[in-house]
Design goal:
single chain, 646 residues, alpha+beta, Serine Threonine Protein Phosphatase 5, Tetratricopeptide repeat, Neuraminidase, Immunoglobulin-like, 5-stranded mixed β-sheet, 37 strands, 23% helix, elongated
Length: 646
């Protein structure tokens, strides 16, 4: 996969020592030629043979290390870069300390990696990379703290070769790049870079649980005999932007150093799976690479990775505006907030306008790691955050996409453990979003802890979700769902109940929600609700139906009246101050009668009950007409009380 996502570098030809034999020089010339053409597999074999014959130099070790590094074989890269630094420290440029640090990190040797990063900084390495490293000395602890937010599993479409770069297509499909086969004239074509077949774009069905099946190749003019990868689709599914080698009208095009660069193309859909009208985007060039497209949620901006003029490092993230006439604005670099002197690539923008991307220029676990940032109103990055493990590993992790509504997504990685035996594989990502709501139950006046208080959580439909009785520490704790509304109620005998409404965020977090209860006077002898530690029967705004939580409290009244047949009850119902006096009198009367009818419908004789509405005339707090109060404060006035009749 590295031929696709790694932006090409220009390597200089270095003249080797004349002390090497003619035969060795001939072999090295072959290796140099293969290396310059990015045929790393062939070059690697020759370099290894030369070293086994007892010949080595800084240049050989650099290039041998590179053949492994740029094919993501980090253990072998660490080995040869390590020997380079040990044997030829004076001839080792800072960038090789950085690559060595990345390689050792990918083997799990974080101590050696940090030592090499310190040397990299001392030798005047890349400014932003060093700053990111120094600002995140505790990066391992930070990554570990996020390790419980995602679960990963390999998908069934992975093959023995590279499979990567998934993108959402319509509601139930995924499109991805694969080297599963590239057959021309009956022969399997292998690329010299990594000895794998060339890449094409494939489509798979996506089930509601994220599982993939039924792989088919995209048809039409979109796939060629060279590489295609990294696609993104318009909302209507009729337009695709994708990455391809610089291959136009059947001809390969090269830069001034004879390198084949990457370009972005656009195609349109005809029928169900036929792509035609392939067009090269106008900001491409034969002299630099443009790759890995991503669309903003409104489809009006195209983000991508490139090493065009103005790039800070090996590759940066850029964008262009898509005009109404189907033309494009001038490319804009996303700036130093996000881009480093290393590699930034594989952008994806979610429906919530969050940009996910991969980089090796920040403190991570090794190789490319996945980060995210919320985009501001101008579409520019804000604070950069790591997705942590297990999304990130000590290998290359990239091509992350997610649907925030279902909390399901995908990523690509060459980590160990997937079904593919060579190169990259696709993983299903399941985001575990959980909110912990906790707090102390205390006396509002004294701050005293209130053990044995009851805390109940209701959802937005007023269904009871969870309940607990707090212990001696008076602390409660509940695990709730993300992006939901809940009401948390605290109650204790001798205290007035209190409620707080919360809206949970859409990502895992902890919310501290103290509950402060106000002491009530000693129960009047005729207040059945107080004697039974009954919660007031609350009503929704402008409603008189019995809520599910109210039914729970009424069940206590019902049980008491069944236990004591002589008990006669008068029901008092009240409103908050909003609305006219006349309307509130009518509404409270309906609430009183609704409460009475609930008891009658459950077997209590009507002659044991009476009910009256008192409108807004008996408020229990300051929330009168013209006073600004919270919804929770108004809620306390929408109630029914139960008075024992003599």
């Amino acid at each position: 996969m590295k031929i696709i996502y790694r932006i090409s570098m220009v390597f200089l030809v270095v003249f080797l020592s004349t002390e090497i034999s003619y035969g060795q020089r001939t072999q090295l010339k072959k290796a140099e030629k293969a290396y310059e053409e990015y045929a790393y597999i062939d070059a690697q074999e020759i370099y290894l043979k030369v070293i086994s014959d007892g010949y080595r130099s800084a240049q050989i070790l650099k290039r041998l290390g590179n053949t492994y590094y740029f094919n993501a074989d980090y253990p072998n890269a660490a080995k040869w870069y390590g020997e380079l630094i040990k044997d030829f420290p004076e001839e080792t440029e800072p960038e090789y300390y950085f690559r060595a640090a990345q390689s050792y990190k990918s083997t799990g040797d974080y101590k050696r990696s940090d030592e090499l990063m310190d040397s990299f900084a001392t030798k005047g390495g890349l400014t932003r990379v060093i700053q990111n490293y120094r600002d995140n000395k505790d990066y391992l602890s930070d990554i570990q703290s996020k390790s419980d937010r995602y679960v990963l599993e390999s998908v069934s479409v992975n093959t023995a070769n590279s499979d990567f770069g998934p993108s959402f297509f319509m509601e139930d499909k995924i499109v991805f790049a694969s080297a599963m086969d590239t057959v021309v004239d009956g022969k399997l074509r292998l690329h010299d870079w990594n000895n794998q077949p060339f890449l094409n774009l494939y489509m798979a069905d996506r089930s509601e649980d994220g599982k993939l099946s039924n792989t088919t190749k995209l048809t039409g003019d979109i796939n060629t005999i060279f590489h295609e990868s990294s696609a993104v689709f318009s909302k209507d599914g009729n337009t695709v932007y994708f990455t391809r080698n610089n291959y136009v009208e059947g001809k390969k095009r090269r830069d001034s150093d004879r390198n084949i660069r990457l370009k972005l193309f656009k195609a349109t859909k005809l029928g169900d799976n036929f792509w035609s009208n392939v067009q090269e985007l106008p900001f491409n060039s034969d002299d630099y690479s443009v790759a890995h497209p991503a669309l903003s949620p409104d489809g009006k901006r195209l983000y991508f990775s490139s090493d065009m003029s103005g790039t800070n490092g090996m590759s940066d993230l850029w964008f262009v505006d898509i005009m109404e006439d189907d033309s494009y604005g001038t490319p804009v670099n996303l700036g130093a907030t996000i881009n480093t002197e290393a590699r930034e690539s594989f952008p994806f923008i979610s429906k919530e306008n969050v940009l996910y991307f991969s980089t090796d220029g920040r403190a991570g676990l090794g190789g490319l790691d996945i980060y995210y940032t919320e985009l501001d109103e101008e579409g520019m990055p804000t604070v950069i955050n790591s997705l942590g493990s297990p999304v990130n590993s000590n290998k290359d992790d990239f091509g992350f996409i997610i649907d925030e509504e279902t909390n399901l997504g995908y990523l690509s990685s060459n980590r160990d453990g997937a079904s593919g035996s060579v190169g990259d594989d696709i993983y299903l990502v399941m985001r575990i979003c959980e909110i912990t709501v906790s707090g102390l139950v205390t006396d509002i006046d004294t701050g005293e802890l209130l053990p044995n208080s009851i805390v109940i959580v209701f959802d937005e439909e007023n269904n009871e979700v969870a309940t607990m009785t707090v212990g001696s520490n008076a602390r409660y704790s509940f695990n709730l769902e993300c992006d939901k509304q809940y009401t948390v109620r605290g109650a204790k005998e001798g205290y007035e109940p209190t409620e707080k409404v919360i809206n949970t965020p859409n990502e895992s977090s902890t919310i501290d929600l103290p509950l402060e209860l106000k002491s009530s006077d000693e129960c009047p002898p005729n207040d059945l609700g107080c004697r039974l530690a009954l919660q007031p029967i609350y009503f929704d705004f402008d409603r008189y139906n019995i809520r599910p939580d109210a039914a729970i409290e009424l069940a206590k009244i019902l049980a008491a009246m069944r236990e004591y047949p002589e008990l006669i009850i008068h029901i008092e119902s009240h409103t908050d101050s909003r609305g006219s006096d006349t309307y509130n009198e009518l509404l409270s009367e309906r609430r009183a009668q609704s409460t009475l009818e609930w008891l009658v419908s459950n077997g209590i004789s009507r002659d044991r009950l009476s009910a009256k509405g008192y409108g807004e005339y008996r408020l229990i707090n300051e929330c009168a007409d013209g006073v600004q109060c919270t919804e929770e404060a108004h809620q306390l006035n929408r109630r029914s009380m139960f008075i024992i009749q003599n």
